[in-house]
Write a structure and sequence with these properties.
Blueprint (H helix, E strand, L loop, with lengths): L1 H25 L56 H11 L4 H4 L24 H10 L21 H15 L5
Length: 176
């Protein structure tokens, strides 16, 4: 019985000692050799000309609504809303909101026009616009995609109020 246990221990020890040599052989090199198989190239990535995929135009504050957009002069602003808020909102609108609502609130296939006095989800009053921007529109009435809270941007409360001021001014340009 003792001889049997001794043989098992010796065979286990021999297996452990042989492990590095087996690993080296499986890796394709001799024990102690440096390197291995040369790297295989499976595919060649074609070089795509840079002109085929130009960079998008840069968006800068003040010109975000469009390159030649003039500041809108707000009329009939509600109490607590200033022209400075409208100007700041115009800059912020171009960073996220214009992607769906279009430049200058012109609308798109993804979201409604904001530069008119037609509202789908609210009556269009300033406090409602602030709430709508903060909460988003999880189930729009006519458009395919939902609007995430704050339009998916990371705006603080003052910035949301400024965007709402701009949207209010867009929808009330005719003095209505």
């Amino acid at each position: 019985m003792k001889a049997d246990v001794f043989r098992r221990r010796r065979s286990a020890r021999a297996a452990w000692l042989a492990l590095p040599a087996v690993a080296a052989l499986l890796a394709g090199c001799e024990p102690g050799a440096v390197g291995g198989y040369p790297k295989l190239v499976y595919r060649d990535d074609p070089q795509v000309p840079r002109a085929a995929y130009p960079d998008p135009p840069a968006v800068t504050p003040g010109s975000a609504v469009s390159g030649s957009a003039a500041r809108i002069v707000a009329t009939n602003l509600p109490g607590g809303v200033t022209q400075a808020m409208v100007d700041q909102g115009q800059d912020l609108y171009g960073t996220v909101c214009a992607a769906c609502h279009g430049q200058g609130g012109a609308g798109s296939a993804a979201a409604p026009k904001l530069a008119d006095n037609q509202w789908l989800n609210i009556s269009g009053q300033y406090p409602e616009i602030v709430t709508l921007i903060n909460n988003g529109v999880p189930a729009p009435k006519q458009y395919p995609g939902m609007m995430p809270p704050k339009g998916g941007g990371s705006f603080d409360d003052a910035q949301v109020r400024a965007i709402a001021a701009y949207v209010f001014a867009l929808s009330h340009q005719g003095g209505a």
